[in-house]
Amino acid sequence: MNLEKHKATPKGNALHALRRRLSDPTNVLQSWDPTLVNPCTWFHVTCDSTNHVIRLDLGNSNISGTLGPELGQLQHLQYLELYKNNIGGKIPNELGNLKNLVGMDLYGNRFEGEIPKSFAGLKSLRFLRLNNNNLTGSIPRELTALSNLKVLDVSDNDLCGTIPVDGPFAMFSMPSYANNKRLNGPELKGLVPYDFGC
Amino acid sequence: MERLSSCRLFTVFIAFHVLFVHQSKGLNSEGQCLLDIKSSLGDKFNHLANWNPNDPTPCGWKGVNCTTIDAYTPVVQSLNLSSMNLSGFLSPKIGGLVHLTTLDLSHNGLSRNIPKEIGYCSSLEILNLNDNAFEAQIPKELGRLSCLTTLNIVNNRLSGPLPDEIGNLSSLSQLLAYSNNISGSLPSSLWNLKRLTSFRAGQNLLTGSLPSSIASCESLEYLGLAQNELTGEIPREIGKLNNLRELILWENQLSGLIPEELSNCTSLSTLALYDNKLVGRIPKELGSLMNLTKLYLYRNQLNGTIPKEFGNLSFAEQIDFSENMLTGEIPVELSKIKGLTLLYLFENQLTGVIPVELTSLKNLSKLDLSINFLTGPIPMGFQYLTKLIMFQLFDNSLSGSIPQKLGAYSPLWVLDLSDNQLMGRIPNHLCRNSSLIFLNLGLNKLTGKIPSGITNCKSLVQLLLAGNSLIGSLPSDLCKLVNLSAVELGQNKFSGPIPPEIGNCRSLQRLHLSYNNFTSELPREIGNLSRLAIFNVSSNSLTGRIPPEIFNCRMLQRLDLSRNRFTGRLPAEVGALSQLELLKLSDNNLSGAIPPALGNLLRLTELQMGGNSFNGNIPAELGALSSLQIALNLSYNNLSGAIPSELGNIVLLENLVLNNNHLSGEIPGSFANLSSLLGCNFSYNDLTGPIPSLPRLDNMAVSSFIANNGLCGGPIGGCNPTPSLSLQPDAKDKGTRLGKVVAIVAAVIGGVSLVLIVVILYFMRRPVEIVAPLQEKPTTARVSDIYFSPKEGFTFQDLLEATDNFDESFIVGRGACGTVYKAVLPSGHVIAVKKLASNREGNNNVDNSFRAEILTLGNIRHRNIVKLYGFCNHQGSNLLLYEYMSRGSLGELLHGASCNLDWRTRFLIALGAAQGSYGYIAPEYAYTMKVTEKCDIYSYGVVLLELLTGKTPVQPLDQGGDLVTWVRNYIRNQSLSPGILDAGLNQQDETTVSHMIIVLKIALICTSMSPSERPTMPEVVSMLIESNRRESHFDTSPSHDTS
């Protein structure tokens, strides 16, 4: 057990923890040096002028492994771009802590488990693309609270139940939900119960 | 126990009947046990080759040691197979070796579980199973080994809890279990082990808290539980462990205060409590721990000041309080700790000056006071510390100059003084001992040139001097530093050319030279920097062409050449930079065509090319930039021709800036696919025609479209009054239209209850009058315009009052695209108001589905569709007004909990409705927007299927998503059998069932995929009547008819 410590701020810790969870055959994360005081010089990481991480661009990077709760510490993160990789496991609930997140692109991976209800905390979220994964369960009704959400894509998963109709869901069209074998049509409240559960 | 091995039986036998010690033939029983054990081991290096079955005893075998009992009998006393690259598993036969006192199988690759039979080895004193791949739970039978003094199971894959029975091991002195997956809380029996001196179970999944009974574990010297999930407070009783030397509890979830009673643990040498949730002050009493050498309290939530009593820790070597919330000044008393080598106080809220006295700490090698509020100068004395290798004071408010002899007397590795107010020059001796790796003096007020002592520092890897007032040229000597990977000189006053020697920095990955006064051309030697990932020369005065060689830097991720005076073309070779994420060329004098090869940059997230003189067309290839997200900016160029519709493929794009060019033609309809677009600018071009329904059009300012050649619609309005684009989209607009139509279908399916209102009304009620047709040009609808049948005579205000401004309590139903309210008008007339989803965000899909529904229902002047009274728009919401049907809908009756419609009723509904049901949209309608008589038949067929199957028109997507597909699938898989019929229908009577099957066939014809195959409605009616005549003979006389 190593008692010596590396000097890194929590932001760097969060990203370094991410690196430890990921397998990176093409070395896109090679520059992620945990001994640096902040991760702003790491490749695929963008900081604002006050050295807060605002973007993580690792789409299409041939990385695998899982995500951990540490990512939830990147309080200033605006864009989490991890699309088209081979990342599996559950989507950490802690991602719901990213209050400044504008875009979350996790599509084209092997994520499983449910869409976290905690995503209701993503108050700034405009773009949520989770398509082409192995997500199960129903679409959390909590997401109807995401008043800024403009784009949703959960197609090509294994979701079930019905599609919410409230809040931003009123404007999403059917291609957002395509290819979910157990997903029924839109939720019809009131007279006729069309929600068959899941 | 229940299945004792013969080996075990035999050895028990031996224990009581010594006369049978020698077997008459060959190997004794313990030898036999060992052979059995060997048989479950993989031994690829043949370490156990001399385990010969023909030996009388195993005592000469490798790893086996014997002793004798009763002066004659050799028995196996120890078995040591450590580090033999063994694989396989440990056989339960191990339980036969009852005289074993030492078993060492460590450092092999043994897997599976630890056999519970090991509990029979009752003489065991030392059990080393560490560094294998043992898994599953730790057997509770271990608790029988009452002689055990050492149990080492470190570095396996053991899971489950530590068994309670461990507490029976009264002789145990060493319990080593770290690096497993052991879970659960620590058994309370554990703390009864009076002889336990070392308990190490770090890096497991242990939960629960440390109990106060820990105090009874009185011999404990080493307690290591780091990297678990322990919670609760550290019990103050821990202070009774006066033999404790090392307390290692880092990376848990421990909370509360650090107990001051720890100061009673006078033997304590290492205290590691970092990375927990400890709060409160650091107890000053800890200053009396005279034997303490390492004190790690970092990464907690400690507050208060650093106690001056810590100056009494005269044996301390390392003190780390960083990443807390400590306030006040750094106590001068720390300078009394002569042996201190490491002092980390960074990331706190410390104030005041750095005590000059700290410079008397002659052994100090690592000092980090960064990220605090320290003021004043850097004490000059630090420059004389001969052991100082890491010196970091960044992000404070330090002023004055940097001690100029820093580095002269010590082998400095790391110096980071960035983000302060330091003035004066960069010291020349920082690399005197040729060991400097990392130098960051950025964001200060330093002046002068980079001294030669730096430019000749061969060990240097990172040189970060950005944000100062440094002058001079980029020293060509710098390029002799072969280890250099990062050079940041931006925001200074450097001038002159970038020397060609830069090409020698073969390790260079980051080169930031922006915001200086660099002049002349970029040297082509940049192309030699094969590892260069970030190159930023923005905002200088560089001239000439962009050297094509730069595109040999295949690792480039960010290339920023913006705000210079580059001329000439952008070489097509730029397309070879497959790793490029950011390309900024804006505000230069570049000309020529935009190379289509830019479309190869599949990782590009931002492309800035504005403010140049690029001409020609925008290459359609840019549509392939699938990662482009932040911006595509081609503004202020001389681009002409049409905007390629392929740009509509860049679905992640958020900003599209094309203004101030000479672009002509229409804005492609494909731009409706740019679902992520937050901003755009098309102004000052020669664009014509209607603005397509951009997804966020309402967020786009009018100024984004002005100064064109007849651009109209959208926010600027003014398109001529022919039916608008959104209702008659042009042929190029397929993708968008599909999206819209799907929304329409969703809306209509969502409104199924309403359609069924019509149907049941037709069936149940009086004839209704024909209401005047609706406006045929819904595009002329304006906010709060309201259209009614002229006969009705109620106002919009009436609607508001009747629904209490659309209060929840008036809701009678919800659909995918809207909510249905019941409104009782002043006249007593009851209507249903369907409020389509809010349009306040300028959601065109909903708007279009609204208009489509109006068009569909309004244009078909079928006499049985009069239930639609009108429509209006209120505060961005579209309202549809229908006749209210108080008896509920067919849907409710059919699909609700109490389904009691018999077949006769259903058939009569079907027959009665045969002259009109709309709303269920046929596929060709979805694609062509043409409503034909054939669509009506399809819709009717869906109603028939509903009546027959009892299923809703919305079906799980994997079963086709709709009832028609579901029925087709069912028939394809299981033939046309009665199983498809609603189980709620009485299927006892054969003629009824065959009637239903005939009607099902009629429904299938009606829902035929090809419109030409569908019958007309009169044909359907006659088929139904004929089917009834032949099979069921229901009375179809006009008592249920409506006309």
UniProtKB/TrEMBL annotation, chain A:
InterPro entries linked to this entry: LRR_dom_sf, LRR_N_plant-typ, LRR_R13L4/SHOC2-like
Residue ranges occupied by any Leucine-rich repeat-containing N-terminal plant-type domain in the UniProt entry: 12-48
Pfam families in the record: LRR_14 (PF23598), LRRNT_2 (PF08263)
UniProtKB keywords: Leucine-rich repeat, Repeat, Signal
Boundaries of every Disease resistance R13L4/SHOC-2-like LRR domain copy: 65-156
Protein name per the record: Leucine-rich repeat-containing N-terminal plant-type domain-containing protein
From TrEMBL, chain B:
Entry's EC annotation: 2.7.11.1
Keywords attached to this entry: ATP-binding, Cell membrane, Glycoprotein, Kinase, Leucine-rich repeat, Membrane, Nucleotide-binding, Phosphoprotein, Receptor, Repeat, Serine/threonine-protein kinase, Signal, Transferase, Transmembrane, Transmembrane helix
Topology in membrane: Single-pass type I membrane protein
Signal peptide range: 1-26
Substrates-to-products reaction catalysed: L-threonyl-[protein] + ATP = O-phospho-L-threonyl-[protein] + ADP + H(+); L-seryl-[protein] + ATP = O-phospho-L-seryl-[protein] + ADP + H(+)
InterPro entries to which the protein is assigned, alphabetical: Kinase-like_dom_sf, Leu-rich_rpt, Leu-rich_rpt_typical-subtyp, LRR_dom_sf, LRR_N_plant-typ, LRR_R13L4/SHOC2-like, Prot_kinase_dom, Ser-Thr/Tyr_kinase_cat_dom
Pfam annotation, one family: LRR_14
Transmembrane stretches, start-end: 741-764
Residues in Protein kinase domain copies: 806-1043
Cellular location(s): Cell membrane
A GO molecular-function annotation: ATP binding
Entry GO terms, CC: plasma membrane
Main enzyme class: transferase
PANTHER family: LEUCINE-RICH REPEAT RECEPTOR-LIKE PROTEIN KINASE FAMILY PROTEIN-RELATED (PTHR27000), LEUCINE-RICH REPEAT RECEPTOR-LIKE PROTEIN KINASE PEPR1 (PTHR27000:SF585)
Name of the protein this chain belongs to: non-specific serine/threonine protein kinase
Native organism taxonomy: Eukaryota, Viridiplantae, Streptophyta, Embryophyta, Tracheophyta
